[in-house]
Amino acid sequence: MKLDPHYYPSASRRTVTFGKHGMVATSQTLAAQVGANILREGGNAIDAAIATAAALTVVEPTANGIGGDAFALVWVDGKLHGLNASGRSPRSISCEAVKALGHESMPAHGLVPVTVPGAPGAWAALSERFGKLPFEALMAPAVALAEEGYAVLPVASQLWEKARVRYRQYDRPEFAPWFDHFTPEGHAPAPGDVWRSPEMAKTLRAIGDTRAKAFYQGELADAMDAFSHQHGGFLRKEDLAAFTPEWVDPISVRYRDHDIWEIPPNGAGLIALQALGILEALGDDHRDPVESLHRRIEATKLGYVDGLRYITEGEHMTHSVEQLLSPAYLKARSELIQHAAIDPTHGNPLMGGTVYLSTADDEGNMVSFIQSNYEGFGSGIVVPGTGISLQNRGWSFSLDEEHVNVLRPGKLTYHTIIPGFITKDDQAVGPFGVMGGYMQPQGHVQMVANMLEDHLNPQASLDLPRWKWVEGKTVEVEPGFPDHYIQALERRGHHIVKCTDSLTFGRGQIIVRNNATGVLQGGTEPRADGAVLPV
């Protein structure tokens, strides 16, 4: 990978970080320190990823929690492994049952959209297969942070307050534990305020001591079952006991002499691969930055409309991954991109919303890991006495019987969280990811194109102002997006909306390895409270 470590765009805010023996990059400094310490104590990249992920549930509860899902791409011994730890819908739920509660579509909050949490199972599965240190030792730093407390950082404080306002609209008893747990003094913690959770410490210790069995079969499962049953939810202990993370074969496309890897559906990584495959079909025989922006936006739109049309749990998809990523289909889709912006529609291949972290060690192992409660804290439901904030992943389901992602009992829904990975010539280049709901595939396209076509280093790639396709010809851009590019894109028919807040444009991390020297380059998100720490 030809990345210029000295080149930065005008928006750059940090310098690229180099390391030789290991590296951890994530969106919260204390969590990054946890992972770096694990590497120093003899753990490998997998151990560091698990410990960092557990710590993030404590120090960045605004974006993930013990009751969320997780995905991972893991490079070990010259091979890339995929882990899908997304949970299924409860066995007792159905479209009819949800509609009987008065909902015309899946609600965003409350117990109805709660699906089986997969994150604790992911931690245990990764440790059992690839870890070096005892699992309880990986939970210990998160336990300490929860018990002793920590000073809340600025971005987390801002998101905390937004969640408090969001959940205040629900005057129902099942939401009270969220306020009791996360706003015990009646307000969100301000930057610098110390927040602690003895309940989360107890839960994380139980997960560590039992390799997550307490969560899926023991006292924690009993607590989730009882609270859900008390307030009319669908989640039951039987649903938790049936959960098993799934090891999967990652999927990829070729882009600029590299292979870009994602988790297969139900994850939305297919969208990013389609967009990159369309761009590869177009080629890079130009040096016009406006043309590059236009192509990337249009390719992303085309990937997204296909993804929203076709992605659900693999066995329920009407079109296969192979069909949607076939060179002939991607070429046909690329031919739709002309000088002017299009209003995209899905194609037919038969005819032609989180926290992210990446780790690396001196053994050559690398991890791309992402976990999420979906929208901020998730459902707004905290199980009393446990600190478990349950995700609202079921919000993605459709109640339309004709939709491919229609709600069914025991089904995996369309999933926004996606870890990414780059290889070249069967060697690891490194993990990358961008959190942020439906921004994630778009962020993947932008990060990969920034590095492999524009040759920006990881930090410079993350620093560039971002764009986000919304619908039709509407594209939102960050406050720092150059005005002359906005004007040029509008002349091509794009409707550009300049936003005042960067928090909706995702937060990413990148680590890449120079396989000739072994030196690591890392970048961390300037839109978050994060850090990239070399070891």
Automatic annotation (TrEMBL):
The source's superkingdom equals: Bacteria
> One short Pfam family name for this protein?
G_glu_transpept
Q: Which Gene3D superfamilies match?
A: 1.10.246.230, 3.60.20.40
What is the protein named? Gamma-glutamyltransferase family protein
List where the protein spans the membrane. Answer: none
Q: Which InterPro entries match?
A: GGT-like_enzyme, GGT_ssub_C, Ntn_hydrolases_N
